[in-house]
Amino acid sequence: MNKKEISSGAQKAEALADNGKKPAAKKNTAVKSTAKAKKAAPVKQTKSNAKNDGKVMSIKKAAKKKGKHVHKMSEKRRKRLEAREQKKLEAAKIRAEKKQKRLEKRLDAKQKRLDRIAAMKEKRAEAREKRRERRDMFKHETKEARIERKRQARVAKTEARVAKREAAMADRRAKREHRLKVRAERRAEKNEKRHAPGFGGWLAAVISLGVVTLALGSMLTYGWINMDGMTADMATIHTESMYELNSIVDNLDTNLAKARVANTRNEQVKLLSNVAIESEMAETLLERMPVDTQFTQNVTSFVNKMGDSAQSMLYSVASGKKLTDSQIATIEHMYKTNLQLKQSINELTANCTGKEMLKAMRGKKDNLMITSFGEIENNVVETPKEIHDGPFAENIKKVSAKNLAGLEEITCAQAEKLAAKYFESYKVSDVKCTGEVTAESLTCYNVTMQTKDGEMSAQLSKQGGKVVEFNSYKDCNDKNFSVERCVDIAQDFLKVLGFKNMKAVWTSENGTTCNLNFAYEQNGVVIYPDMVKVKVCEERGIVTGMEGLAYVLNHTQRELGSAKISKSEAKAVLNGGFETEGSRLCLIPVDGGEVLCYEFYGTYGGNDYYIYVDAATGNEVEVFTVIGTAQGKALM
């Protein structure tokens, strides 16, 4: 063991000795390599420097060879750069100028727009002021003052037209005299040139003799010539009036045709103003026609009523209201009637010669003027259609079926059973449901029934089975029942159909048939939107017609409130000459809404009127006048 340990120690000592030697050898090697590197380094750097020096020398030589050429290229380049910079400056200047112009143009357009807006505002303000002044004038203007104002306006227009016509005639005469004078002078010059010298004395004597002869003839025939000239002038005036009437009727046709489709306020105001003005002009010209007034009475009346209707609609539109269905129907009727009048007047104007005009002026019965106006009276002119068969009968706003809300729908068979029950007193048979029909968003069953007097028909609402319309087709030819009895018959009929608390608000009869309007009455207030129309045969004493669509669609219990002014205060608003015969509170349709009003009915100047005053503001809301028609009395 000791040997082993010693040997191992000796081995370790030897190993240590070997390790000590090896680092030294490495160190020497490193020193040698460093020395070699130091010696070799200068050699490598010298080579690289030599290479670089060679490159520099070659560049310098090339520069020496091409020195002149490089200098020339840089000058061109400099000029190109300068030109390019100049172009850029010019382009920038042009862009700046364009931008400035665009900015100025925009500012100018903006200023013009602001000027237009300011001018439009000023124009609207002026128009509002004029409308306000006009409303104030009409508000305080009495009927007599209005009539006098219109008369004075017509007289002024007539005088202006006559003066214009006379001035035109004087101008034509002066021009004609001038032409004749020039023609005579030219003729004299030609004669002087044509005749030889010495011939002038003989020519002068002949001319003098002719002048004397002409003067003597003129003295003898002066009176006849003067009268004939006056007649010719009058014939010319009447002919011009007829042509002017023809032109005005053509303009009325154009404006009425446009008014049929116009739906904006400004356009309606313009067209209705034209119709009102042209109607007055046409009325004045008709009065000047050389025919008896009996041949133009109806035409003049139609034109007058057309002007009044247009003026009434104009006031309504100018105050911000919309045209009602009745007013639109009136425009349609005026258009159709005026179209027939236009065709007749055009034909008369084309065929009426000066000879026919002289015959009319002399009162001969066979002249074309009298014949044509007689045909117009008989075949063309009709009464204006702005006529209602009672207050607000055609002005009911039909909305959703409030009266049918919550009711169940019925079948066609159930509709037949209900119809047989409703019209049991008519002893109906063969009741048939023929199908469905929809009107004003309301679906109904059509039911036909047979009676001993003929066929009857009815419409029952699909929801709830309410009677909406009923018609019997047998004519009535005699009167056996009074109006009061007809009212009782109609009320009993409505109760059977389920219409309760109905009050008769309008009666009109023509000797064989009584037309009645009933409105629902709530707490003593007549509700005009809830209306039912009934027709009673005065010969047999039975209801032959009924229409209750407005009631079915509008009826509901309303919160009416109370009037803010008293009846006496409302009555004080009326014209002082209006004689009140009765009054009551009512709810009327106005511009799609409902307004609580006082209704006053009475007379003024021999005519009957219905006037409605707002129970809250005291303003007159609506005015109707009662007129007579072939079917009885009606409102307009």
Secondary structure: elements and pairs:
Layout: H1 2-140, H2 143-194, H3 200-261, H4 265-287, H5 297-318, H6 325-351, H7 354-361, H8 368-379, H9 412-422, E1 429-439, E2 442-451, E3 454-461, E4 467-472, H10 483-497, E5 502-509, E6 513-522, E7 525-537, E8 542-547, H11 549-554, H12 567-571, E9 579-590, E10 593-604, E11 607-614, E12 620-629, E13 632-635
Parallel strand pairs: 7-9
Antiparallel strand pairs: 1-2, 2-3, 3-4, 4-8, 5-6, 6-7, 7-8, 9-10, 10-11, 11-12, 12-13
Helix pairs in contact: 3-4, 3-6, 3-7, 4-5, 5-6, 6-8
Explain what this protein looks like in three dimensions.
It is built from twelve helices and 13 strands. The protein is α+β, with helices and mostly antiparallel strands. Helix 3 (200-261) packs across helix 4 (265-287) and helix 5 crosses helix 6 (325-351). It has helices spanning 2-140, 143-194, 200-261, 265-287, 297-318, 325-351, 354-361, 368-379, 412-422, 483-497, 549-554, 567-571; strands at 429-439, 442-451, 454-461, 467-472, 502-509, 513-522, 525-537, 542-547, 579-590, 593-604, 607-614, 620-629, 632-635. Strands 1, 2, 3, 4, 5, 6, 7, 8, 9, 10, 11, 12 and 13 form a 13-stranded mixed β-sheet that branches. Mean pLDDT is 75; it is low at 1-6, 20-47, 195-200, 220-227 and 383-388.
